[in-house]
């Protein structure tokens, strides 16, 4: 029975890794649709989010079954609870990628963001992808040390967002209110994607140590 239980627990972790891979693709494709005003790619991101949602529902149900039937304790219980939360974080990342794609679709055939901020969004997407990849590796390896790096990595995304606000509020912004609003909202989406990656890192630390990380860069609610 316990062997079957451990197999099931490992299966939920593998599903979370699969979710992370799908979300990385979503974020990359949503960014390409945004920068390139690619309607077909935006539509693909929007429709493909169903795959992430289906995995989310499946992992959630498996975790509930484990809690109800196996009564896990100590490290096993921490893992089940953490996997549930990671599943939520990844689902929200997928939703945010969809928001990016929806903005690209809404402004098509125009580009949603002007050239001065396009490179920033490309870099924010690159950093977010790197953070999701790191969070995934730390889960697989139970690597709390590398998980701790995610909070500092998030600062680079925050810095880009601050730079965007300086551009939006500066006298040189000549692209109108609509593009300013789009840029502000899109910046928030990417910032939140990075925040969710940090939250996954915090769950890995919790699995390994049994303690939630503390500090201003870590999630306040656990």
Describe this protein's structure.
With 222 residues, the protein is mainly alpha-helical. The chain has six helices and no strands. α1 runs antiparallel to α2 (39-70), α3 (74-107) runs antiparallel to α6 and α4 packs parallel to α6. The radius of gyration is 19 Å and the shape is elongated.
Features:
222 residues; mainly alpha; 85% helix
Structure, briefly:
The protein has 222 residues and is an all-alpha fold.
Secondary-structure map:
Elements (H helix, E strand, L loop, with lengths): L1 H35 L2 H32 L3 H34 L7 H27 L2 H26 L6 H34 L13
Helix pairs in contact: 1-2, 1-3, 1-4, 2-3, 3-6, 4-5, 4-6, 5-6
Q: What overall geometry do the principal axes of the alpha carbons give?
A: elongated
Average pLDDT works out at 88
Biggest sheet record:
none
Residues in β-strands, percent? under 5%
Helical residue percent?
Answer: over 70%
**Count of helical segments?**
6
Uncertain stretches = none
Compute the separation of the termini in Å: 31 Å
Q: What is the number of strand segments?
A: 0
> What's the SSE pattern?
HHHHHH
- The radius of gyration is 19 Å
Structural category is: mainly alpha
């Amino acid at each position: 029975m316990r062997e079957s239980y451990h197999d099931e627990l490992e299966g939920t972790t593998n599903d979370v890794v699969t979710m992370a891979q799908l979300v990385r693709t979503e974020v990359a494709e949503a960014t390409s649709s945004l920068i390139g005003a690619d309607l077909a790619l935006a539509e693909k991101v929007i429709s493909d989010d169903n795959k992430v949602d289906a995995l989310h529902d499946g992992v959630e149900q498996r975790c509930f079954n484990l809690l109800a039937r196996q009564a896990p304790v100590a490290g096993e219980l921490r893992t089940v609870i953490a996997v549930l939360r990671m599943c939520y974080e990844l689902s929200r990342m997928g939703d945010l990628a969809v928001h990016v794609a929806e903005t690209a679709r809404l402004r098509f055939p125009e580009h949603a963001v002007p050239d001065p901020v396009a490179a920033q969004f490309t870099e924010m997407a690159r950093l977010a992808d790197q953070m999701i990849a790191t969070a995934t590796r730390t889960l697989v390896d139970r690597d709390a040390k590398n998980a701790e790096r995610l909070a500092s990595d998030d600062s680079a995304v925050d810095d880009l967002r601050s730079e965007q606000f300086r551009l939006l509020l500066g006298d040189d912004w000549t692209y109108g209110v609509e593009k300013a609003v789009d840029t502000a909202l899109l910046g928030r989406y990417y910032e939140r994607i990075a925040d969710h990656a940090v939250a996954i890192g915090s769950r890995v630390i919790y699995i390994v140590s049994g303690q939630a990380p503390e500090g201003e860069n870590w999630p306040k609610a656990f």
